Amino acid sequence: MLDRLALRTAFWGLLALVSGGTVLVSAGMLTLPSFVAAAPFLSALSLLIAVAGWRLLHRELLRRMQDDSVLEARVRRLQDAMQGSMDAMVLLRTVRDREGEIVDFEITDANARAAALLYRHSTQMPGLRLRRDLTPFGDSLFQRYSEAVTFMAPVAEDTRVHRRFLKASWVRHQATPTSDGLAVTLHDISAQKREELRLRKASLTDDLTRLHNRRGFMSLAEQQLRLARRQGKDAVVMYVDMNGFKELNDTYGHGVGDRALIEVARLLRSTVRDCDVVARLGGDEFTVLALDADGYGARAIQKRIEEQLSILNATGTLPTQIGLTIGHTRVRPSDPASINELLARADQLLYARKRRRALTVAVGNAKPMRAPRRTPRNIPTVPIPADVAAVAIAAARTLPSPITTVNIPTLPPALSMERGVTSSA
Q1: 323, 239 in Cβ contact below 8 A?
Q2: What angle is formed at CA 9 by the lines to CA 6 and CA 13, rounded to 5 degrees?
Q3: From CA 237, how far away is CA 286, in angstroms rounded?
Q4: Of 348, 350, 361, 421, whose CA–CA distance to 389 is shortest?
Q5: What is the DSSP letter of 212?
Q6: Which residues contact 419 (CB under 8 A, 6 or more apart)?
Q7: How far apart are the C-alpha atoms of 156 and 146, rounded to whole Å?
């Protein structure tokens, strides 16, 4: 079956042949026996050509009508899909100057979701321009969209926007180049980003105390230490440990232990500055990274912690008093130690302080030791001659006047050595 091109070629060839023959007959260049005799032939041929032309034109019109209906159905389906999409869809047309440079993008069509995302009605969308009517959000996209049209390269990225311009805080937009414009799809991912932020915060935060956990402290402390070293400032890493936490749990239960941890976390958070990093490393161990602080600042922080701890114990919030032991190490800008090494140093100082405190308590609680009772020995009596005793008494009486004269009684003939007098015999 001939296609449309073959039919058109045959029809126009036949029409040209008949027209040429008619011209030749009229000019007398083609001799026929009689024009009257050729008239039926020419009439039949003209009728045949007319019928063939009408048939060909009819088929062409039917085909075009079918193509138009198919195209309209396709456009209608695309419009229905575009309007029913949960994503915002916008068709942009490039606006060029006389030199052919892209100066703006104009919206030619948009669905209801896109209009709602831009705080507008669907009828207000066509005709809006990116740079003229959607600033500053449009200005941030114009350069990337221009490059996409110039190099025919699609754009796909996540962008954070202000809710003053879009009814979303995060959008994932994809721009696909067309013949002279872009097909842009915008998807609101604000809920997804909030969930990602919640999960990330949960992975870096201790559930009980709402402080940073070990992972969160490591990542944040490394950044803060690099910043402090770059600025030439000191820092202090403090290691805080609760005293007798196991005995507290065993005596009053884990509920009271959790309350104690929460109170200590609140105490530490309220004592240090907002720029300092406070974390619970695990169990009853806490740590503080104090920025722009030296040894004096560390002692000041420790003093404030002890004062707040005394106030907490005085309020009776917990059924028993709690104690804290703190070890700290100073970090100078020239100190290349990592955060793990700094924590190990502070931990060593903490346990050294705990050992000294335990030794002090042990010495203070120890009972004074009595000297062992000595059993008196039976020392034999040694007799002293009377002349020796008389000489000793005379010597004692002749002592100088500053010394008070003591009346020494007459010694007996025999003295015991237990009174300090030994025999010379």
Answers
A1: no
A2: 145
A3: 11
A4: 421
A5: B
A6: none
A7: 14
Using CB atoms within 10 Å of the CB of residue 65, give its burial: 0 to 12 exposed, 13 to 18 middle, 19+ buried.
Answer: exposed
Task: Give the chain's count of helices (H) and strands (E).
Answer: 12, 11
C-alpha 23/C-alpha 17 separation (Å) is 10
Could you give the 3-state DSSP secondary structure of residue 196?
Answer: helix
Encoded amino acid at 11, one letter? F
In DSSP terms, which residues pair with 212 in a beta bridge?
A: 205, 279
Buried b (16+ CB within 10 A) or exposed e, 197-227: eeeeeeebbbeebebbbbebbbebbeebbee
Residues 6+ apart with CB under 8 A from 41: none
Please state the pTM of the whole predicted model. 0.54
Strand order in the sheet with 88-96: 102-110, 88-96, 181-188, 170-177, 155-160
Residue 421: per-residue pLDDT: 39
The model's pLDDT over 330-351, given as tens digits with 9 standing for 90+, comes to 999 998 899 999 999 999 998 8
Helical H runs in 254-294?
Answer: 254-271
- The pair of structure tokens assigned to 275 is 């720029």
Please report, for residues 390, 412, 413, 424, the alpha-carbon distance to residue 394 in angstroms, rounded to integers and kept in the order given.
6, 15, 16, 18
Return the half-sphere exposure (C-beta side, CA atoms, 13 A cut-off) of residue 75. Answer: 7
pLDDT tens readout for residues 206-262: 989 999 999 999 989 999 999 999 999 999 999 999 998 989 988 999 999 999 999
Please answer whether residues 131 and 112 qualify as being in contact, where contact means their C-beta atoms are separated by less than 8 angstroms.
no
Evaluate if residue 94 carries a pLDDT over 90: yes
User: Which of 304-313, 328-337, 359-368 has the weakest average pLDDT?
Assistant: 359-368
How do the residues of the chain divide into helix, strand and coil, expressed in percent and rounded to 5?
Answer: 55, 20, 30
Distance, CA of 122 to CA of 119 (rounded, Å): 10
**In whole angstroms, what is the distance from residue 35 CA to residue 31 CA?**
9
